[in-house]
Amino acid sequence: MTELVDPLTPVGAGMSTPDTQYPVTLTVNGQRRHVAVEGRRMLVDVLRQDLRLTGTHAACDQGVCGACTVRVDGQTLRSCITLAVQVDGAEIRTIEGMATSPEELGPVQQAFWEKQGLQCGFCTPGMMLRVEEILDENPAPTREEVREGISSNLCRCTGYQFIVDAAMRAAEIRAERGSEA
C-alpha cells in the first residue's frame, strides 16, 4: 500500500525551507554581483533592495504593466514575476546601465528626452528597455511596429504618441551614431 504524504510537509534530510538562502551571481550593467537570496525572492526586489538599483519599478506584481521590465541576456523580462534564482549567471541590464557614459545619454534615453516621451516617469525605465529591444531586433521599425512592440508596457499618462515619436527618434540617433549605439 502506498503511503500518502502531505505535500506541504518537507520530507527527508536537506530539504529547503522558505528562509533557505541560495547564492546567486548576476552580471548587472556590466558589473558582476553576488547575492544570497531566499528561493521565493523576486528579481525586482533583489535589484531594488539588495543592489540599490531603484530605477526598476515595482507596480502590479503580476507581470502585466511592464514597469519592472529589465533585459536578461538581451531579452526583456518582467522582474516582478521572475525569481532571482531563475536568472543565476545571467547578464542583466537595467535603466541604470543604458547611458553611453556618465556624461552622455544612450540613444533611447536621448530620444525620450528630446521627444518628451514621458510624463510622470513611472513606466519610463521599462518602456525604454522595451524600445531598446525593439530597435535591437529591427533598427528601422515603422510607427505601427513600434506601437505593437510597446503594447506590452502600460503608460497611464502619455497616450503613447510621444513614446512612439521617441522610439522613432532613437532609431535615427542609433543610425547616426553607428555601431556604438
UniProtKB/TrEMBL annotation:
DNA damage is among the record's keywords: no
SUPFAM superfamilies documented for this protein: 2Fe-2S ferredoxin-like, CO dehydrogenase ISP C-domain like
Protein name as it appears in the record: (2Fe-2S)-binding protein
Alphabetical list of PROSITE patterns matching this protein: 2FE2S_FER_1 (PS00197), 2FE2S_FER_2 (PS51085)
Domain 2Fe-2S ferredoxin-type: start-end pairs: 22-98
PANTHER family: OXIDOREDUCTASE WITH IRON-SULFUR SUBUNIT
Domain of life: Bacteria
Species: Nocardioides humi
UniProt keyword annotations, A-Z: 2Fe-2S, Iron, Iron-sulfur, Metal-binding, Oxidoreductase
UniProt-listed CDD domains: fer2
